[in-house]
Amino acid sequence: MANGLFVFVLAAFFIVLLRWSFKTLPGEGWQIVASVPVFKEESGRWRGVNLTYYGLLVASAYDVAGVILFILLGTLKIPLTGIFVMVLTLLLICVPASRFIAKIVEKKLYTFTIGGASFVGILIIPWALWLTNVTLGARSNFHIPLVPFLAAFVISYSFGETIGRLACISFGCCYGKPLSQSHPILRRIFDKYCFTFSGKTKKIAYESSLDGVKVIPIQAITSILYLITGIFSMLLFLQSRYIVAFILTVVVTQAWRAFSEIFRADYRGGRRISVYQIMAIISIVYSLGIGYFSPSASVTQTDVRIGLVSLWNPSVISFFFLLWVAIFLYTGRSTVTGSTLTFHVHRDRV
User: Fold this and answer.
1) pTM score, whole prediction
2) Residue (of 138, 123, 59) closest to 89 by Cα position
3) Residue 263 counted as domain residue
4) Interhelix angle for 114-132 vs 146-171, to 10°?
5) How many domains does the chain fold into?
6) Is the pLDDT of residue 8 over 70?
Protein backbone atom coordinates (compact mmCIF):
# COMPACT_ATOMS: atom_id res chain seq x y z
CA MET A 1 0.00 0.00 0.00
CA ALA A 2 2.74 2.47 0.97
CA ASN A 3 4.78 1.63 -2.12
CA GLY A 4 1.86 2.21 -4.48
CA LEU A 5 0.85 5.45 -2.76
CA PHE A 6 4.40 6.79 -2.99
CA VAL A 7 4.61 6.08 -6.73
CA PHE A 8 1.16 7.63 -7.29
CA VAL A 9 2.07 10.86 -5.46
CA LEU A 10 5.39 11.05 -7.31
CA ALA A 11 3.67 10.56 -10.66
CA ALA A 12 1.04 13.20 -9.86
CA PHE A 13 3.73 15.72 -8.93
CA PHE A 14 5.59 15.15 -12.19
CA ILE A 15 2.45 15.36 -14.30
CA VAL A 16 1.60 18.78 -12.85
CA LEU A 17 5.20 19.94 -13.28
CA LEU A 18 5.41 18.80 -16.91
CA ARG A 19 2.06 20.30 -17.86
CA TRP A 20 3.12 23.70 -16.50
CA SER A 21 6.62 23.50 -17.97
CA PHE A 22 5.54 22.64 -21.52
CA LYS A 23 3.27 25.69 -21.62
CA THR A 24 5.63 28.12 -19.93
CA LEU A 25 9.31 27.38 -20.44
CA PRO A 26 9.57 28.03 -24.22
CA GLY A 27 8.82 31.69 -23.46
CA GLU A 28 11.52 34.36 -23.47
CA GLY A 29 11.09 35.19 -19.79
CA TRP A 30 12.08 31.71 -18.62
CA GLN A 31 15.74 31.59 -19.59
CA ILE A 32 17.43 33.98 -17.15
CA VAL A 33 16.73 33.77 -13.41
CA ALA A 34 18.89 36.74 -12.45
CA SER A 35 21.88 38.78 -13.56
CA VAL A 36 24.66 39.49 -11.09
CA PRO A 37 26.88 42.58 -11.62
CA VAL A 38 30.56 41.63 -11.63
CA PHE A 39 32.48 44.42 -13.38
CA LYS A 40 31.88 48.17 -13.71
CA GLU A 41 32.71 49.69 -17.08
CA GLU A 42 33.99 53.22 -17.71
CA SER A 43 30.54 54.22 -18.92
CA GLY A 44 29.17 53.56 -15.44
CA ARG A 45 27.31 50.47 -16.53
CA TRP A 46 27.93 47.08 -15.00
CA ARG A 47 28.77 43.92 -16.86
CA GLY A 48 26.70 41.04 -15.47
CA VAL A 49 26.79 37.26 -15.27
CA ASN A 50 23.48 35.62 -16.09
CA LEU A 51 22.14 32.86 -13.86
CA THR A 52 19.83 30.60 -15.83
CA TYR A 53 16.75 28.48 -15.31
CA TYR A 54 18.76 25.81 -17.11
CA GLY A 55 21.12 25.62 -14.14
CA LEU A 56 18.26 25.79 -11.65
CA LEU A 57 16.45 22.90 -13.33
CA VAL A 58 19.59 20.81 -13.85
CA ALA A 59 20.51 21.25 -10.18
CA SER A 60 16.97 20.23 -9.25
CA ALA A 61 17.23 17.22 -11.58
CA TYR A 62 20.40 16.06 -9.83
CA ASP A 63 18.75 16.45 -6.44
CA VAL A 64 15.57 14.64 -7.47
CA ALA A 65 17.57 11.80 -9.02
CA GLY A 66 19.76 11.61 -5.92
CA VAL A 67 16.80 11.56 -3.54
CA ILE A 68 15.11 8.78 -5.51
CA LEU A 69 18.38 6.82 -5.54
CA PHE A 70 18.70 7.19 -1.75
CA ILE A 71 15.09 6.10 -1.24
CA LEU A 72 15.38 3.01 -3.45
CA LEU A 73 18.68 1.94 -1.93
CA GLY A 74 17.26 2.66 1.51
CA THR A 75 14.53 0.09 0.87
CA LEU A 76 17.35 -2.47 0.51
CA LYS A 77 18.69 -1.39 3.92
CA ILE A 78 22.06 -0.40 2.45
CA PRO A 79 24.02 1.71 4.99
CA LEU A 80 24.22 5.44 4.33
CA THR A 81 28.02 5.21 4.29
CA GLY A 82 27.97 2.88 1.31
CA ILE A 83 25.40 5.00 -0.51
CA PHE A 84 27.37 8.20 0.08
CA VAL A 85 30.61 6.66 -1.19
CA MET A 86 29.01 5.44 -4.41
CA VAL A 87 27.04 8.63 -5.05
CA LEU A 88 30.08 10.86 -4.47
CA THR A 89 32.20 8.64 -6.72
CA LEU A 90 29.65 8.90 -9.52
CA LEU A 91 29.28 12.66 -9.11
CA LEU A 92 33.02 13.31 -9.12
CA ILE A 93 33.38 11.38 -12.38
CA CYS A 94 30.12 11.98 -14.22
CA VAL A 95 29.65 15.72 -13.65
CA PRO A 96 33.00 16.69 -15.25
CA ALA A 97 32.36 14.06 -17.94
CA SER A 98 29.18 15.89 -18.96
CA ARG A 99 31.28 18.82 -20.16
CA PHE A 100 34.34 16.86 -21.31
CA ILE A 101 32.38 14.55 -23.62
CA ALA A 102 30.40 17.47 -25.08
CA LYS A 103 33.70 19.25 -25.76
CA ILE A 104 35.09 16.22 -27.60
CA VAL A 105 31.95 15.45 -29.59
CA GLU A 106 30.60 18.92 -30.36
CA LYS A 107 33.94 20.80 -30.28
CA LYS A 108 32.40 23.38 -27.94
CA LEU A 109 33.83 24.52 -24.62
CA TYR A 110 30.65 25.79 -23.01
CA THR A 111 28.08 23.03 -23.22
CA PHE A 112 27.00 19.89 -21.33
CA THR A 113 25.68 16.43 -22.16
CA ILE A 114 23.65 14.49 -19.62
CA GLY A 115 23.51 11.55 -22.02
CA GLY A 116 27.29 11.36 -22.02
CA ALA A 117 27.40 11.56 -18.22
CA SER A 118 24.89 8.72 -17.84
CA PHE A 119 26.90 6.62 -20.32
CA VAL A 120 30.01 7.02 -18.19
CA GLY A 121 28.00 6.22 -15.06
CA ILE A 122 26.66 2.96 -16.47
CA LEU A 123 30.18 1.92 -17.53
CA ILE A 124 31.91 2.62 -14.22
CA ILE A 125 29.28 1.49 -11.70
CA PRO A 126 30.20 -2.23 -11.71
CA TRP A 127 33.86 -1.44 -11.10
CA ALA A 128 33.26 1.31 -8.54
CA LEU A 129 30.80 -0.94 -6.73
CA TRP A 130 33.24 -3.85 -6.66
CA LEU A 131 35.96 -1.58 -5.26
CA THR A 132 33.61 -0.20 -2.60
CA ASN A 133 32.53 -3.69 -1.55
CA VAL A 134 36.06 -5.10 -1.21
CA THR A 135 37.38 -2.07 0.69
CA LEU A 136 34.89 -0.11 2.77
CA GLY A 137 32.26 -2.83 2.58
CA ALA A 138 34.64 -5.49 3.85
CA ARG A 139 35.73 -3.30 6.76
CA SER A 140 32.23 -2.14 7.69
CA ASN A 141 30.54 -5.49 7.03
CA PHE A 142 28.14 -4.52 4.24
CA HIS A 143 27.72 -5.54 0.60
CA ILE A 144 25.94 -3.54 -2.10
CA PRO A 145 24.38 -5.87 -4.71
CA LEU A 146 25.21 -4.95 -8.30
CA VAL A 147 21.93 -5.40 -10.19
CA PRO A 148 19.67 -3.72 -7.58
CA PHE A 149 22.09 -0.78 -7.41
CA LEU A 150 22.17 -0.48 -11.21
CA ALA A 151 18.38 -0.67 -11.31
CA ALA A 152 18.10 2.09 -8.71
CA PHE A 153 20.65 4.19 -10.60
CA VAL A 154 18.95 4.02 -14.01
CA ILE A 155 15.51 4.59 -12.47
CA SER A 156 16.77 7.70 -10.69
CA TYR A 157 18.44 8.78 -13.94
CA SER A 158 15.13 8.39 -15.77
CA PHE A 159 13.35 10.69 -13.30
CA GLY A 160 16.27 13.13 -13.25
CA GLU A 161 16.34 13.32 -17.03
CA THR A 162 12.61 14.01 -17.01
CA ILE A 163 13.43 17.30 -15.28
CA GLY A 164 16.67 17.71 -17.21
CA ARG A 165 14.75 18.00 -20.47
CA LEU A 166 12.78 20.86 -18.95
CA ALA A 167 16.11 22.63 -18.54
CA CYS A 168 16.66 22.15 -22.27
CA ILE A 169 13.30 23.75 -23.00
CA SER A 170 14.13 26.80 -20.87
CA PHE A 171 17.46 27.33 -22.64
CA GLY A 172 16.16 26.37 -26.08
CA CYS A 173 18.66 23.57 -26.66
CA CYS A 174 18.25 19.94 -27.80
CA TYR A 175 15.42 21.22 -30.01
CA GLY A 176 13.37 19.41 -32.62
CA LYS A 177 13.10 19.91 -36.35
CA PRO A 178 10.70 22.50 -37.78
CA LEU A 179 7.27 21.09 -38.53
CA SER A 180 7.53 22.59 -42.01
CA GLN A 181 10.45 20.23 -42.73
CA SER A 182 8.85 17.17 -41.14
CA HIS A 183 6.73 14.35 -42.56
CA PRO A 184 3.04 15.26 -43.08
CA ILE A 185 1.99 12.71 -40.46
CA LEU A 186 4.25 14.38 -37.89
CA ARG A 187 2.88 17.79 -38.87
CA ARG A 188 -0.68 16.61 -38.22
CA ILE A 189 0.25 14.98 -34.91
CA PHE A 190 2.22 17.89 -33.48
CA ASP A 191 0.51 20.90 -35.04
CA LYS A 192 -1.42 21.57 -31.81
CA TYR A 193 1.30 20.31 -29.48
CA CYS A 194 4.43 21.84 -31.00
CA PHE A 195 6.89 24.19 -29.33
CA THR A 196 7.42 27.76 -30.50
CA PHE A 197 10.40 29.33 -28.74
CA SER A 198 10.80 33.06 -28.24
CA GLY A 199 13.88 35.06 -27.31
CA LYS A 200 17.04 35.82 -29.29
CA THR A 201 19.31 34.52 -26.51
CA LYS A 202 17.88 31.01 -26.67
CA LYS A 203 20.11 28.46 -28.37
CA ILE A 204 17.50 27.59 -30.97
CA ALA A 205 17.62 31.26 -32.04
CA TYR A 206 21.35 32.01 -32.13
CA GLU A 207 22.33 28.57 -33.48
CA SER A 208 19.59 27.87 -36.04
CA SER A 209 17.39 31.01 -36.22
CA LEU A 210 14.32 28.92 -35.41
CA ASP A 211 12.80 31.20 -32.79
CA GLY A 212 9.15 31.84 -33.59
CA VAL A 213 9.02 28.66 -35.69
CA LYS A 214 6.89 25.63 -34.86
CA VAL A 215 9.19 22.72 -34.01
CA ILE A 216 8.71 19.11 -32.90
CA PRO A 217 8.49 19.13 -29.06
CA ILE A 218 11.21 16.51 -28.74
CA GLN A 219 12.17 17.55 -25.20
CA ALA A 220 8.56 17.09 -24.06
CA ILE A 221 8.30 13.67 -25.71
CA THR A 222 11.50 12.59 -23.98
CA SER A 223 10.30 13.86 -20.61
CA ILE A 224 6.99 12.02 -20.89
CA LEU A 225 8.58 8.78 -22.07
CA TYR A 226 11.23 8.84 -19.34
CA LEU A 227 8.61 9.60 -16.69
CA ILE A 228 6.45 6.65 -17.76
CA THR A 229 9.52 4.41 -17.86
CA GLY A 230 10.65 5.58 -14.43
CA ILE A 231 7.21 4.95 -12.90
CA PHE A 232 6.86 1.41 -14.27
CA SER A 233 10.45 0.52 -13.43
CA MET A 234 10.08 1.85 -9.90
CA LEU A 235 7.02 -0.34 -9.40
CA LEU A 236 9.05 -3.32 -10.63
CA PHE A 237 11.91 -2.40 -8.30
CA LEU A 238 9.58 -2.17 -5.32
CA GLN A 239 8.34 -5.65 -6.24
CA SER A 240 11.99 -6.85 -6.06
CA ARG A 241 12.12 -7.45 -9.83
CA TYR A 242 15.48 -5.74 -10.12
CA ILE A 243 16.84 -7.22 -13.34
CA VAL A 244 13.61 -6.49 -15.23
CA ALA A 245 13.54 -2.92 -13.90
CA PHE A 246 17.19 -2.40 -14.87
CA ILE A 247 16.94 -3.79 -18.40
CA LEU A 248 13.60 -2.10 -19.13
CA THR A 249 14.88 1.32 -18.10
CA VAL A 250 18.17 1.08 -19.97
CA VAL A 251 16.64 -0.28 -23.18
CA VAL A 252 13.82 2.28 -23.33
CA THR A 253 15.87 5.36 -22.38
CA GLN A 254 18.93 4.54 -24.47
CA ALA A 255 17.03 3.23 -27.49
CA TRP A 256 15.01 6.44 -27.48
CA ARG A 257 18.22 8.44 -27.02
CA ALA A 258 19.55 6.90 -30.23
CA PHE A 259 16.30 6.96 -32.21
CA SER A 260 15.11 10.44 -31.20
CA GLU A 261 17.99 12.16 -32.97
CA ILE A 262 16.18 11.78 -36.29
CA PHE A 263 13.67 14.32 -34.96
CA ARG A 264 16.26 16.83 -33.73
CA ALA A 265 17.73 19.85 -35.50
CA ASP A 266 20.49 20.89 -33.09
CA TYR A 267 24.17 20.18 -33.74
CA ARG A 268 25.44 16.91 -32.22
CA GLY A 269 28.66 16.44 -34.16
CA GLY A 270 29.31 16.20 -37.87
CA ARG A 271 28.71 12.47 -38.30
CA ARG A 272 25.65 10.85 -39.86
CA ILE A 273 25.45 8.56 -36.83
CA SER A 274 26.43 10.67 -33.85
CA VAL A 275 28.75 9.64 -31.05
CA TYR A 276 25.80 10.01 -28.66
CA GLN A 277 23.84 7.41 -30.62
CA ILE A 278 26.80 5.04 -30.51
CA MET A 279 27.14 5.54 -26.75
CA ALA A 280 23.44 4.78 -26.28
CA ILE A 281 23.73 1.52 -28.23
CA ILE A 282 26.86 0.53 -26.29
CA SER A 283 24.99 1.21 -23.04
CA ILE A 284 22.24 -1.22 -24.06
CA VAL A 285 24.65 -3.99 -25.07
CA TYR A 286 26.79 -3.46 -21.96
CA SER A 287 23.73 -3.56 -19.69
CA LEU A 288 22.36 -6.70 -21.34
CA GLY A 289 25.74 -8.33 -20.73
CA ILE A 290 25.65 -7.33 -17.07
CA GLY A 291 22.13 -8.68 -16.73
CA TYR A 292 23.08 -11.99 -18.34
CA PHE A 293 26.31 -12.65 -16.45
CA SER A 294 25.43 -11.19 -13.05
CA PRO A 295 24.20 -13.59 -10.36
CA SER A 296 20.57 -13.22 -9.35
CA ALA A 297 20.09 -10.78 -6.48
CA SER A 298 18.45 -12.11 -3.37
CA VAL A 299 14.81 -11.07 -3.22
CA THR A 300 14.04 -8.87 -0.24
CA GLN A 301 10.78 -7.33 0.90
CA THR A 302 10.96 -3.66 -0.04
CA ASP A 303 9.21 -0.94 1.92
CA VAL A 304 9.49 2.60 0.61
CA ARG A 305 8.89 3.94 4.11
CA ILE A 306 12.34 2.68 5.14
CA GLY A 307 13.88 4.62 2.26
CA LEU A 308 11.95 7.77 3.13
CA VAL A 309 13.03 7.59 6.76
CA SER A 310 16.67 7.36 5.66
CA LEU A 311 16.35 10.85 4.14
CA TRP A 312 15.51 12.39 7.51
CA ASN A 313 19.14 12.70 8.47
CA PRO A 314 21.15 15.93 8.88
CA SER A 315 24.00 14.61 6.73
CA VAL A 316 21.64 13.65 3.91
CA ILE A 317 19.76 16.97 4.01
CA SER A 318 23.02 18.95 4.06
CA PHE A 319 24.43 16.87 1.22
CA PHE A 320 21.52 17.56 -1.10
CA PHE A 321 21.51 21.26 -0.25
CA LEU A 322 25.22 21.57 -1.04
CA LEU A 323 24.82 19.43 -4.16
CA TRP A 324 22.07 21.71 -5.47
CA VAL A 325 24.17 24.83 -4.90
CA ALA A 326 27.27 23.29 -6.49
CA ILE A 327 25.45 22.04 -9.60
CA PHE A 328 23.59 25.33 -9.99
CA LEU A 329 26.83 27.32 -9.88
CA TYR A 330 28.50 24.85 -12.26
CA THR A 331 25.75 24.71 -14.88
CA GLY A 332 23.75 27.87 -14.19
CA ARG A 333 26.37 30.57 -14.82
CA SER A 334 25.77 31.31 -18.48
CA THR A 335 28.94 31.59 -20.54
CA VAL A 336 27.19 32.16 -23.88
CA THR A 337 24.98 35.09 -22.85
CA GLY A 338 25.87 38.35 -21.17
CA SER A 339 24.14 41.37 -19.68
CA THR A 340 24.68 45.08 -19.13
CA LEU A 341 23.19 46.60 -15.98
CA THR A 342 22.45 50.11 -14.74
CA PHE A 343 21.18 51.17 -11.33
CA HIS A 344 19.28 54.24 -10.23
CA VAL A 345 17.36 55.68 -7.29
CA HIS A 346 13.59 56.20 -7.33
CA ARG A 347 13.61 59.86 -6.21
CA ASP A 348 9.86 59.91 -5.68
CA ARG A 349 10.25 57.23 -3.01
CA VAL A 350 13.03 58.87 -1.00
Assistant:
1) 0.92
2) 123
3) yes
4) 160
5) 1
6) yes
